[in-house]
Amino acid sequence: MKILFPKLKKKGTAGLLLFTGALIFLFGMMLAEFTYVNYNMANNYISDLGNFTHPVPAIIFNASIITFGAMAVCAGLLLRTALDRGLAILIILAGAGGIGVGVFNEGTILPIHYISALTVFIGGCIAIYRSAKVLYTRPVSYIFLIMAGIVVFFMSIMIFNMVPGSHIHFGIGVGGMERMVVFPTIFWVLVTGIYLVAQAQINETGSARLEV
After folding, report:
1. How confident is the model at residue 205 (pLDDT cuts 50, 70, 90)?
2. What residue numbers bound the domain in which 171 lies?
3. Residue 1 counted as domain residue
4. Residue 34 CB coordination number (10 Å)
C-alpha cells in the first residue's frame, strides 16, 4: 500500500490515520447528538443517530463512522508488515465493521447492522488486548488489559440484555452501557495513533525506541 507520508513510514502513517479517524468520529457523533431533537445519551443507542428519520444527524453520523472505518482499514493494511499481523487484522475487521454500521444504518437491514456493530465491539476489544501484548510495555500494557476487561464486561451485559426480560443497565441506561464499550475503545485508538506517530518521529531522528 502506498504511503501518504513517507517520513512517517508505515507505522507513523497508520497512527496518523487512526488518530485522525477517531477524532472525526468523536466530533461527528457529538455534532449528530447536538442536532438530533430530544436525543438522550442514556436512553438512546449510539446507532439511533444514524437513522434517517432524523436526516441531518444521520448524514453527519454515518459519514463520520464510515470515514473512521475506512481510515482504520487503511491503517490496518499498513500495519500488516510494519507491526503485528494479528493486531493489523483486528483493526481491519473493526474498521470494516464501522463501515458496515454506517452503510447499513439503523433504518436499513438490521441484521447486517447488528453484525457490523458486534464486529466493531469484538474486534476493538481484542485489539486492545493484543496491543498490550505486542505493542506496549508496562505499566501502560496493564492499563489497557484492564480497559479490555471493562469493555468485555459491559459488552457481555449488553448481549445478555438481548434476552427478553433482561434489563441490567446500572442506572446509566442502554446508551450509557454502549458508551462504556465505545469510549474506552476510541480512547485506545487515539492513544495508539499518537504512540505510533511518536515512534516514527523518534526512529526518523535516529533516537532510541520509545518506551511507554
Report:
1. low
2. 10-204
3. no
4. 11
Give the integer Cα–Cα distance in Å for 197 and 199.
Answer: 5
Q: What is the dihedral of CA 159, 37, 171, 127, to 10 degrees?
A: 40
By the 8 A CB rule, do 52 and 58 touch?
yes
CA separation (Å) from 10 to 22, 67, 83, 93, 180?
A: 18, 20, 9, 19, 31
d(CA 185, CA 192): 10
Residue 147: inside a domain: yes
Q: Mind listing the pLDDT tens digit for each residue in 43-93?
A: 999 999 999 999 999 999 999 999 999 999 999 999 998 788 999 999 999
On whether residue 212 sits in a domain, the answer given is no
Whether residue 186 is contained in a domain is answered as yes
